[in-house]
Amino acid sequence: MSGIIVARFGGDEAANSQEVIKSSNILLSNPSRRYAVVSAPGATPESVGVTDMLYLCHSRHTSHENYDDIIAKITERFDEIITGLGISFNLNAEMSSLVKSINMGMSLDYIASRGEYITAKIFAEYLGWPFVDAQDIIFFSRDETPDKEKTFHTAAHKLSNMEHAIIPSFYGTSDRGDIKTFVRGDCDSAGSLIACAVHAEVYEKWSEAAKVFTADPSVVPSPEVIRNLTYMEALELNYASMNLVTDNVVLTLDEANIPMRIASTHNPEDPGLLISSKLPEGSNRKITACIAGSRNFTTVHIRKYGLNKDYDFNEKLFAVFARQKIACQLSLSGIHQMSVILKAPVFDIRRNQIIAEIERELSPEEVSVEKGLAVIVIIGEGMGTVKGTFSRIFDALVNAGVKAKMIEQGADQQNILIGVSDNDYAASVKALYEELILN
To answer: Which domain holds residue 391?
Structure first.
């Protein structure tokens, strides 16, 4: 192990001067935290996030509207941070450069990246650490996915002689040589790429609330805290809208066998949650790691006799949703019926259009829509290999007076998904928690 830690701080951790000081103190508290990847100031009760304001500036300029008031608000956000830190920083020069770039018609990606760019330079000035521009060490391929080989090689060479560095998240350089941003909200990808480039021992993700519980705390009073998850288990929790880690980050860190620690800036001494390729030895884990869930799913039922013999049925069905840019969380298929589960407000808006497309493309006997489904996911490594797990789940639900509308186990036997009525969500989670966690 290298002993190097790469730390990522999000928008909340740069929202004001106090948060920047708190984040900086965390970096300085451990000499192994050598590289930090930082985001632009996030939203506050008084203001939207800086990146949102930058998008608005670009939009107004494109529409030939005045955006001086937005520039003033961005300046005010950065000025509060600089003043609170007590540093000498030429903000006027940075804002003048930003306005000039907007007026010159620079790309939306370039304008949106300036929040991270300025924030990283402020962090660097306050800490006395070198600033390394992400466009010099993070690269994208022609298909707009990260060019890992070029990024790893360039970043490793650039950072090898630096004891510390502050790096902006959210952007890099495209194959054409201009600024390219990651998908909105996916700043973890930048940090994970840097962690792999420097062969970090751990990648830290710092946020205000880092605790993950064994069950929904809004339903179960004082549930146990989870200390360890595998990357695959963490991905399964995305079904419950927990979104601890994205597919891209898992692919990057898992391949390099680098664990990810989710830690709280409010309690830096707490061990937080460690997500890794394999559970650490002696983790003292129960078979069931977590029971999580989410309400308000919509189910689209398509009934067509002999659909199991229609070799391109699935392809044509999912193409309909893809054209509407609707992600399907889950699908269940039988001999004559397929049910697609989704959570997308846009479906309600385009419901009649989507149903018409399904009828035109697939000629089904019937298409029906059912709202008010809650999806509960039970995760745990090897859970499917323990005899009696299914019977315990069904017994717990029956004893709670709950009827399961669907149930499916993943092929990797690390998850079981259950669909129940929204009205039965709380009773289901409580019953399953008592049976699988407490017992």
So the answer is: 290-438
